[in-house]
Protein 1
Amino acid sequence: MLSTDLKRLVRNGETSRLEFKKKVNQPQRILREIVAFANTGGGILLIGVDDDRNIVGVRDSMEEMEALNKSLNDLVRPKINFEIELVPVTKKRNVLSYNIRESRNKPHYLNPSRTSKHGVVYYRYQDKSIKASKELIEVIRKRKRLKKGYLLQYGPVEEQLIKTVSANSNMTINQILTSTNLSQKTVSRALIKLVLANVLDIEPRDGEDIYNYKETALN
């Protein structure tokens, strides 16, 4: 990447596939962005660019890169494939450009324990990397296995959820629970099925995910 390419990339600000970090002094936050990109549609992480789009670069870029790569190797499972490029800013400073592709092995977990691969799953939504809910994790896990679509087993629970969500917009799981009087376990399982079948749409949020009915789903 040339410096002109870097400036052009930074000019429009952060997006669902572009994130800026000024320093590597908080590796956990950087790992979160990388995990989120791999779990979603991929993206580019630029280290050495601040939130105001100032390209400041990083000193000792090789040392910073090695430290971050070690953290990636130690704290993320499954391992994530990525490409790194050093873009010169001055004689002593570089921007670290991490190019992360959408993974075939998602979901990826940050901080898995020694006895289990499960840690925290992050997902990219708009220009934020957020903690994925258990419903979203299941959608990610099962969707990667689908090749010819999802066969929906349609019953009274699914019908009730479709009627409830189609009559309202931006419903959270707690709002659905209040409206249906169904158990959380029942609602959670049915929502996952309906999202996989493209009947409902799930939009990740920092607090609660929101669900909407797809108008053309059953037409």
Protein 2
Amino acid sequence: MFNLLRLPYSYNVLEPYIDARTIEIHHGKHHKLYVDNLNAALEKYPALQSLSVLELVRSLDKIPEEIRTVVRNNAGGDACHTWFFTGIGPNEGGNPRGALAAAIDATFGGHEQFRQRFAQAVLDVFDSGWVWLSRDGAGNLLIETTPGNDNPWMFGRRAILAFDVWEHAYYLKHQNRRSDAVEAWWRVVDWDRAEERFQTGG
């Protein structure tokens, strides 16, 4: 049985950057539905229930074909949203620190250049999906986009930052102004958590 992430903060503490109603719907409705759907899909597969969500999305080729798409969408949704919600927090924002900051500077030419490229990747997503700062098997940083609830773990990479480009993540406050949503998200990014993910592999 998979359980919905218990948020480490209350719905309203990310205001004015992310409003309480958006967090409530995003977490309590959308994220919860992914968890509920995943539990229903695995009800007849007790061996799969013992795996973590990341283990599921890393080994989709071993999932029975009749439930593979459901598991891909819903285990992916749980993993992506857990990474998103635990990668932000109150009294955060600012700039990256430590080894991650140095890697961002080396890879993208500085924090501002990184932010610009990341924001452009968000704007370039045609429909729903995610934008990630991730790390490949050689340790290199990359900005990548994935459709639906696909994610870096499916392709052998590690996730550091996750931005949700599904409209339910920002539309109540920002409507179609994705650039405003990204700018608000930067104000709540937990760079200490990002540094931890960078150091441990995500």
